[in-house]
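User: Fold this, then the next.

Assistant: Folding the first:
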Amino acid sequence: MNKQRIELLPGVFLTVLHTDKFKTNCLSLNLLRPLCREEASLNALLPDVLLRGCKMCPDMGAISRWLDERYGAGAQALARKMGEVQAIGFFLDYIDEDFVQSEEHLTEDICRILGSFLMEPVTENGVFRRDYVESERANLINAIMSQINDKRTYAMTRLRETMFEGENFGVSKYGKREDVESITPESLYAHYRRVLETSRIEIIFTGKTDVERLCGYLLAALKDLPRGELTPVSTTAGRIPDHVREAVDSMDLTQAQLTMGFRTGITGKSEDYPAMLLMNGIFGGGINSKLFMNVREKLSLCYYASSGMDRFKGIMLVSSGVDMDKLETAREEILRQLEACRRGEITEEELESTRSYLQSALKTNEDSPYNMDEFWLGQQVGGFTYTPSELSEKLGLVTLEQIQRMACNVTLDTIYILKGGAGNGEA
């Protein structure tokens, strides 16, 4: 795979990922916004409303027919959280032009409708249609409330809110229910105009194309895009805590959720990132990890136990499902497994199986156009410079001593427990 990056317009960048692995091409347009309570819900709602209708296709039926006529092309709204950046927009996929009649210009068509979705929304009385806003607002509220039904997801949401109180990273990519409920067609349209003018835009193409023609199609589609002073977006690693915070909520459930948040200070920009990634994998990142093999399998303290890294924020989060009477024992054992990593008590099998798993995952990631899109968007958002193959190569060079040093760099910040009993949660 080869990569090109081009600035099409002020603050509008195109990344082309050249690959012939797929029979489809994919194009995403991402407006980058600072993640914050004030606009999170507006941002999350906006692409769904824009995808309800545009000048080329004024309603969902017309959009569906238009896509079907182009060999079943697809279009979906996007709302992604990358550190303290909210990326919103559209993802379109369509069959590669090598497989259609030569006179058909699918890439040009896809760029045209992408521009129409963004620049030519259906309006009434100078704002978004009320029925479109109300319908998508209800859908977004349902998505927010559904998190309560998935207790694992809800517990992790509450962990982030507690751990990052006062930091924008604690804000959900959907925002809050009460914020969604307050959105009107007028307020959303006013926000839309600000977003168009002040957002950095990252466009990512995955597949085969003539880059010069693609640039021409996109420039034609975005020729009327207003450009002003861009709103800066960035993510900070955050402070190392001076004490451990703890929070407990109660719900009507039989299995407790024990979650832990750790600060590492190591983001994707750090030379130590490959070592930290491997340390997390050994600790709790897979089926051969210490949390899975010891806390879950050997000691039967958890129904599940795993850890995950965030390359933007430099944190490690642990999630586990535990019987009520085993909460304290499970908590102690999870921390004991981290101490084992700090002491370098890592077998050759643990090291090499985790290394192989992570390297395989990086390679497999390139088998999905959407995963490639998300990876490279994250690289641009985070300012990370490594390619998947470069990261895989660096993982192959990580030593046990480096992993041990990374484990010593991990600091517990917050423990959040969702247990059974009286009380109601709120997303």
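Now the next one, as you asked:
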Amino acid sequence: MKEKVIGFINSKKVIMVVFILASILFAIPSIQYLLENKTIVNFSEYFKFCLDDSNPVEQTIIYLIILTVLTIFYFFIVKNRDNLFKSNKQMYMYIAIVSLIFVIVVPFLSSDVFYYLGVGRLDSAYGQNPYYVTIKDFVESGYNSQYLEQDTVLAKGYENDWGNTTVVYGPIWTLICKLVAGISFGDIDIALLLFKLLNMVIHLVNCYLIYKLTGKKLFVLLYGLNPYMFIEGIANVHNDIYVVTCILASLYFLLKKKNILVSIVFLALATAIKYFAILLLPFMIIYYFRDKKPWERLKKCFLYGMLFIFIVAITYLLYIQDIQVLSGIMTQQQKFTKNFYIILMEYFDIPNLVSNVNMILLISFIIIYFFTCLTLLYKKQIKFREEIRKAEYFLIAFLFLLITNFQPWYIMWIFPLMMWQKKRVIQFVVQIALISQFANSVFLTNGEGWRNGTPFTFFMLLGICVCLNLRNMFPKSIKPKIVNS
């Protein structure tokens, strides 16, 4: 009987149909909301999965059940990928179909997209510099509040929690927001749909780049069919998915096209969205010039480092008036949520404990990073797989130890380098991303608030402990097909 059940679950049609049906179930509350309201204008139900009168516990249970089904069948699909997808075209089409379903899902776990669009509208329609003028500054000065009645994109940005903050991202992201908001005609429904469709296209581009880099369906599916990616990248429309694209493109031109110049350009573009991407720069330059002597490598690092800085600086020239253009970057680091710093704040009443711990970790990180790069300069034999693993460890440390304002969608940062890691690390990346979505259920139950970051963090820590003790789920050989790796 048990074998028959497993055989039925593993059958091709059942696996693929159930995953699509679960995705549709995930989208039904959003479909119901849109049919009843005809617009997203009055949507303010962040951290509410079932957009009706369901109580918080009920909606959390429904969310967890559907997410569990998606997760289980996601792993079934990954396991049976060769039987399910006879060609890459079938695989891409299936990912596209599921992605399109998540385009319908309203951003119930984050309101960031309305801030993105509000900033873009502030720039495109009203000629304001969003690095110096906030949405609320503009609306509340003079007679500008009249625009809220006719410009629902600006209105949603004005209502957002970040509406009183200047841009906290790099200028490339601001330009993307400007473009989308500019062609929305001030209609939030058009703007949100355009953004979601664009994120869907970017998601598919990422899947394509992953296959071009690795030559394996496994890695495409681990990323492309991951419920975490659908929720954070498409449903909640986070900008981290664009950083993933730039890093993947940078790796593609480095490894496949042997073009360091274009590779540096894409890495600079990634940094001009979110600054963490700069951590990869020394690893990529030194690897490319691995056949050179240490002094030559150092000169190349300086030369291409200056080129990198020049490209990033050019993007800031579009908005810069003074050093204040960087103030938004520091705003995020001054916030504390969803990480172990929250636990320190809540349970240890020690003056300056959080800031001191953060400073110690930051100094330690800088020292280790510096000496790792210095050692790499003098290393005789440099293999990409070995060095990119070190870069991944630095990204993981940066993500979980240094960022005080940790958010689940930041886990996307470590996906582009996942393919060259050891099996245990690959397993960890995939699992911890999914666990972050389960951990978010505490916000569905209790609502938004910084103190809910504590149970979220405990959930994440518990999940990490469980993941580290699980057996490997992947086959023995999962190395990407990369020459000189």
